[in-house]
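Help! Submission page says 'invalid entity' but I think these are all valid:
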Amino acid sequence: MPLLEVKDLQVRVEEREILHGLSLTVNKGEVHAIMGPNGSGKSTLSHVIAGKPGYEVTGGQILFNGEDLLEMEPDERAAKGVFLAFQYPVEIPGVATMTFLRTALNAQRKARGESEYSTPNFLKKVRDVAASLNIPQDMLRRGINVGFSGGEKKRNEVLQMALFEPSLCILDEMDSGLDIDALRVAADGVNALRSPDRAMVVITHYQRLLNYIVPDFVHVMSKGRVVKSGNKDLALELEASGYAQFEEA
Amino acid sequence: MAAVQETVDRVRQIDVDQYRYGFETIIESEKAPKGLSEDTIRFISAKKNEPEWMLEWRLEAYRRWLTMQEPTWARVDYPKIDYQDLYYYAAPKPKKEISSLDEIDPEILKTYEKLGIPLREVEALEGVVRPEGERKVAVDAVFDSVSVATTFQEELKKAGVIFMPISHAIQQHPELVKQYLGSVVPTSDNFFATLNSAVFSDGSFVYVPPGVRCPMELSTYFRINERNTGQFERTLIIADKGSYVSYLEGCTAPQRDENQLHAAVVELVALDDAEIKYSTVQNWYPGNSEGKGGIYNFVTKRGDCRGAHSKISWTQVETGSAITWKYPSCILRGDNSRGEFYSIAISNGYQQVDSGTKMLHLGKNTTSRIISKGIAAGKSQNTYRGLVTAHRKAANARNFTACDSLLIGDKCGAHTVPYIEAKNTSALFEHEATTSKISEDVLFYCVQRGLSQEEAVGLVVNGFVRDVLQQLPMEFAVEAQKLISISLEGSVG
Ligand SMILES: Nc1ncnc2c1ncn2[C@@H]1O[C@H](COP(=O)(O)OP(=O)(O)OP(=O)(O)O)[C@@H](O)[C@H]1O
Ligand SMILES: [Mg+2]
C-alpha cells in the first residue's frame, strides 16, 4: 500500500480553483521532489495534505496508509505522521521553543496512546538533535522563531522533524533563504532521516538542493497539475530549459 | 516540582459543565432580611458584635450612599440592580471557635478540594512541615461572608504580623483599624465603595510591624456561596516602615442564574521604605453561554505609598465575572515611591471587562509601571482604562505604560482608554499600545505539530501574557496558567 496517494485532487480557494485534478503517489522510503513556477500550487498541495483551513476540496481523494486523510483534523494527521516544514515558519512570542517542542511531542504521543517522554529523556533527545544541526542551546530557550534568522527558522523546522519522527515529511522550500553552509547542514539533517519507513516530498525551485537531497522522483507542477514526472535528471533538464515548455501544456 | 504538578493535575480533574467550578455547597446559613436600610446595617453590626464607633461609621456611609448615583461611565452594560432585592449578610451557622483548619465543616473542605485548591492549604491542614527555605503560605479562608479559619497564626505572631479577619481586628486592634480604615478609600469615594463601607461583611486585616519581612505569603480564598447574597469584602493591609508583605487573593464561585453583586474594597498603606505585593486570581462565575447569570464585580482597590521609598505592586489575573469594573490604583505620595500594575484580563462569552489602573504621582521622583494584557474572545468586550497624573510638585515623575490586546475571533472587542495628565514639566510619561489577533497561520503551525486548537490557543495566549505571569508567586502562576487555558475553552472553531 502506498504511504500517500493523492488522486485527482481539486481544490478551491475563495471560489477560485487552484488545483485542477492533481495526482501523486508516494511510497515508503522514497524521496519525491516537486518543482514548478511560482503560483503553480505547490504550497497549496502541501497545505491541503496537512489540513490547513481555508481550502475547499471539491473533488478527488487523499489516502494516507489507506486512510482518508481529508476526514481527519490537522492535529490527528500530525499524530499519524504527517509533517510539514513550512515555507514561512511563524513566530510565537513568549512561548519558549523547548516548551513548545515538549508540548507538541507529548500531544502527539498521547494521541497515539503512547506514554509521555520523561523530562531527562526528552532533554537529551533535543540536545542531541540540536547539536547535530548546529542549533545553539540558547535558541531553544527563546520564543519560537522569535528573532531567529531565516536560516535558523529553517533549521528549527528540521529539528522538529527529527524530533517527531514523522512517516511523511513535506519540505516546502526548505532551501529558500539559506546560505551554502546552512543548506548543507539542513540537508544533512534531512538525509539523516531518510529511512525505508519514511517518505519525503521536497518542494524546491532550485536543482542545487537536489544535489544534497537526491530524489528518487522529480515532478513538475504547472497550473495546479503534475505535468511531467521523471527521475533526478528531470531537475537538471529543467535547470537548463526552464518551465516554458510546460506553460502551454 | 512535584507540588506544582499536583496542582496542575488537580485543576485538570475538575470537570463541571462549562464553568468548571460550578457547584454549590449546602450549608445552613443565617441571613439578614432582604433589602437595605439602617436596620440591615444595624443587624450586620450587631451580628458582628461591633463597637458603637463602627456602627456609626457604617451608618454615615449609608446616609452618604443614599445621595449618590450609580456610575455609568464604564463601557459595561447591565440591567438595573434592585438594591432592595438583595441580601446583605449571610453567614454559615455559627459554630464553636476553631483553632485550626481541620475543625472546619467537612462540606466546606470538600468544596475547596473540588476546586483543586492547592496543596499548600492541604499541607496546612495536615500540618505538613515543608523543607527549610521553602516559603509557607498562610490561609485566611473567607467562606461566604465570614472567615472560618486562620492558619499559621503562631508563626505570624512570632514575627509580630497581625493577619486576621477584619471583624476580629475591629475587636482586637481598634486603634489600628480606626487609624487606617477609610484612609485610602474614603467612605465617600464612589458609589460601590460607599455601599461597601455601609454593609461590608468581612475580609482580611494585615499589619506588618516596622522592619519585619513577613515570613510567608498571606493568602485568602474568597468564595461566594449564597443565592442572592451580595459580597462586600473589606481588606486592609498596612506595611509599617521598612516592612515587606506579599498577599494573594484568589476567587471562584458556584454556578447560578441570578446575577450577583460583588463590591469589594481593598486598602493598602505602605509607610517609609515598605513594600506590598498584592496578587489576585479572580475566577468568579462569568455567566452561561447565552450571557445569563454571572457575577457583577465592582471593586475598589487602592494603595497608598504614604512613605518615602515605599512600593506597591498589584498583579491581577482576571478571568471570571460577567462584568468587571476594577482599577487597582496607587497614590504615590511619598518621595521616591513606586507603583506597579501588572494585569491579565481575559473575557470570553458575553463577559464585559472594564479594568485598568490609576497612578497618581504626588511626590518627587516617583515612578510607576503599567503592563496590561487584555484578551478578548467570544462576544466579549475588554477595555483597558488607565489614568496617569503628575501633581505640580511631582518633579521627575516617571511612568511607563504598555497595553497589549489580543483578539480571538471577530465578534469581540478590545479598547484602550488612556488618560494622561502632567502638571509638572519634568514628568516623563511613556505609553505604548498594541492590538493584535491570533493569526490563523500561528494556530495552524501549532496544530500541524500535533496540538489541538484549544491547546494551541492556550499556548499562544500564555506566551502573550508571560511577562505578567512571571510577576506572580510561582505556585500561583501555575494555577493561573491553567486557568487561562480553561477560561478560553470553546473560544475557537
Ligand atoms: N488564501 C489564498 N487566497 C487566494 N489565493 C490564494 C490563496 N492561497 C493561494 N492562492 C493562490 O493559489 C495559487 C497557488 O499558490 P501557491 O502558494 O500554492 O503557489 P506555489 O507553487 O507554492 O508558489 P511559490 O513558488 O511562489 O511558493 C497562487 O495563484 C496564489 O495566489
Ligand atoms: Mg510556495
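Support: the input was valid. A stray whitespace character was the problem, and the output above is from the cleaned input. DSSP finds 13 helices and 23 strands in chain B.
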